[in-house]
Amino acid sequence: MATANPPASPATASSPPAGPAGCSHTPDRTREERAFTTWLRRLYTAPGTGELTALDSRARFFPPGLRRFLSARDDTCRTPYCDAPIRHFDHIIPWHHGGPTTQNNGAGLCEACNHTKEIPGWSSRPRPGPRHTLDITTPTGHTYHSTAPPLPGTGAGPPDPDPAAAKSPNHRRERRQRAQTLLRARTKSRLAA
Fold it and tell me: pTM of the entire structure?
């Protein structure tokens, strides 16, 4: 964020500006000086429609509106094979490594997956595509892809070629239940033999 301040008058030239970029309202600053303070923020729009798509943010924490957006987009924890409720709003590229606080660099994770992601050897990065996708790499070198589920009412199915998974927006939960049913059946057949 940049500021443009008028030249300091001789009375205020010796006193440093108060607060970030001299923008705090202190008695030392006159109303006229405060009126010339300007904040700049880049806004990003879609080329064809002019629709606002993003804006600059230096904040570390996701603001309430962006948290609601991530909750609606992600629905459950974005780690593959985890359907836990979202508890943390995480920077895919960590904030302390220069990752911005934006919708493209944000993901809703459960508490366990967010803490696991911070263990050395784990990494994640956003992946370009029509829907928000991220790649998660484990310490063993395996890479998993997580694509946000389609929004309700869009009619867009998941990019998974499995027709059974494309029928339901809860495809991860159904796959896990199917796997558990198969494991139970396999265990019963081994005990019977």
Answer: 0.52
